[in-house]
Amino acid sequence: MQLNPACPLLKNPRMFLLSWRVAWIAASVVLVLENPLLAQRHDASNAAEQVVWTNPPEDDPDFQLMGEYVGEVTRSEDAREKLGLQIRAIGHRRFEALAYPGGLPGEEGFRNEPASLTGQRSERFLVLGGAEFAILVHPRHCLVIGQQGEQLGRLERVRRVSPTLHAPPPPHATVLFDGSGTEQFTVAKMTADGLLLAGADVKPMFQDFNMHVEFRVPFMPLADGQARGNSGCYLQSRYEVQILDSFALIPQFNDCSSLYRFKAPDVNMCFPPLQWQTYDIVFTAPRWAADGSKLRNARITVWHNGVKTQDDVELPNKTGAGKPEEPTLLPIRLQDHGNPVVYRNIWIIDRGLHVGEFPVYPPTEEPPAPPVD
């Protein structure tokens, strides 16, 4: 959007802010009239209503507003503070958002004390309310407005990239998938553009390992909960690191990066749907006695998009729908939950044969490769 410098509103800042306030009130009226039950999520059980995007839609105004924004705002007594904002589209022009003091999840200074906001788009205008401030959203930036209509700050749109995206496999790693074929799987299918589809079983079996995997969840605005971009990394077919579109949600024990139905992630590091994300996983298998009794539980550490979300967690049993625990090895499984989640750049270090630093980050002297959508 280009603003004309000759516009009278730009020459008179008070008039400019007043116009924003009027627009805010007008949008709020539209919000109440059109959807008095905004906070109630849409029931997307009707399959005919399902919308699934596997590539970014160019003409969807909801998708254009969804994402991450960050900037400084005046909170009290002219004190400036960094504010991070995540906006999630939930269908029919409705949105949910979380505003984090100190910045976005994973950033230095981030405080996990989010304010929840909701809003509804009118044409290309979105206002979010529900906190002690309102937020006027543009696809490239947001204005944070106080209770008297004053502008508290401006947030710029950002697009973060995992520091382990495109991480190359070390020389001693086993490359499970690089886009060239599915020879390392007993069951697997590829897309026409060389991505691995969910629903793949790894052929080699591993006990203790470090695994790098990159994944992309679809944009499913009318779906909710476990029906929105669901897959999972089933380690030894028993212990699931959940994959889900949990962007801009307060994490629960069945959300992305959770140890499914056992432990929520320490922080929600989800990026918006259709952005490539990474898991870097350190897994140590349980140990067994000759009589079949268990001597030690499994343990797991997970980095999601370069940030540790599970820290050496002990797993006393299988998670969710995992196979029962027993001394025999089972394959790693990339779960097919009926959603078009795709994978790439999957490699693994067998710690029975090799050791080394992990995760493997790109060289510090070179910037990470640009994302490939």
Give structural notes.
By secondary structure, the chain is mainly beta. The chain folds into two domains: 8-158, Lipocalin (Beta Barrel); 174-350, Exo-inulinase, domain 1 (Jelly Rolls, Sandwich). 8% of the residues lie in helices and 35% in strands. The chain contains three helices and 22 strands. It has helices at residues 8-11, 13-34, 61-65; strands at 67-76, 79-89, 94-101, 115-122, 125-129, 134-137, 141-145, 151-158, 174-177, 185-187, 196-197, 200-202, 209-216, 231-235, 239-243, 277-284, 287-288, 294-296, 298-304, 307-315, 333-334, 342-350. The strands form four sheets. It has an eight-stranded antiparallel beta barrel. The model is unreliable at 1-11, 13-20 and 22-48 (pLDDT under 50).
Structural topology:
Layout: H1 8-11, H2 13-34, H3 61-65, E1 67-76, E2 79-89, E3 94-101, E4 115-122, E5 125-129, E6 134-137, E7 141-145, E8 151-158, E9 174-177, E10 185-187, E11 196-197, E12 200-202, E13 209-216, E14 231-235, E15 239-243, E16 277-284, E17 287-288, E18 294-296, E19 298-304, E20 307-315, E21 333-334, E22 342-350
Antiparallel strand pairs: 1-2, 1-8, 2-3, 3-4, 4-5, 5-6, 6-7, 7-8, 9-22, 10-12, 11-22, 12-21, 13-16, 13-22, 14-15, 14-21, 16-19, 17-18, 19-20
